Amino acid sequence: MIVYAQEPELSAEEFRQVLVASTLGERRPIDDLDRLERMLRNADIVVTARHESRLVGVSRAVTDFSYCCYLSDLAVDAACQRQGIGRRLIDETRRVAGEQATLILVAAPAAESYYPHIGMKHLASCWAIPRTR
Questions:
Q1: What is the domain partition of the chain in residue ranges?
Q2: CA dihedral of 37, 17, 105, 115, whole degrees rounded to 10
Q3: Which CATH architecture has domain 2-117?
Q4: Which of 47, 100, 115, 124 has the smallest number of Cβ neighbours within 10 A?
Q5: How far apart are CA 80 and CA 106, in angstroms?
Q6: Are strands 45-51 and 102-104 parallel, antiparallel or unpaired?
Q7: 101 neighbors 44 (Cβ within 8 angstroms)
């Protein structure tokens, strides 16, 4: 059984472990625990999925709880994928953010085909100023 909960105090080390296990670690600063710690502490929503207390998934989002919610990280341990964990993490994040907030995310290349499958709409217009480090 998977237990879902808000965990605003999730440790950077556990976060790192699930990022690595999900392959999202390829695009996150997994070798910088201080930065991962700041990512967690400055998030508005951190939802976890645990199986027998082991972290198997996490959703980390920044939101105003009124208009928009940016789902920055959606990571599910590769060994636990295809069980509905990612979808449930998204649903829990949406519930916490509120009905008025549009949920937005930037898909990892390997996950692009997943999001239409769960009912998310593709938006063609997105612009960014890349981080410098």
A1: 2-117
A2: -170
A3: 3-Layer(aba) Sandwich (3.40)
A4: 124
A5: 22
A6: unpaired
A7: no
How many other C-beta atoms lie within 10 A of the C-beta of residue 4? 16
CA nearest to 89, candidates 41, 49, 56, 116: 49
Distances (CA, A) of 30 to 16, 20, 24, 58: 6, 8, 9, 15
Say if strands 45-51 and 68-76 run parallel, antiparallel, or are unpaired: unpaired
Using alpha carbons only, give the angle 45, 27, 42 rounded to the nearest 5 degrees: 25
pTM of the model: 0.91
pLDDT tens string, the chain, 133 residues long: the values are 999 999 999 999 999 999 999 988 889 999 999 999 999 999 999 999 999 999 999 999 999 999 999 999 999 999 999 999 999 999 999 999 999 999 999 887 777 777 878 888 888 888 888 888 7
Element housing 86 (H / E) = helix 85-97
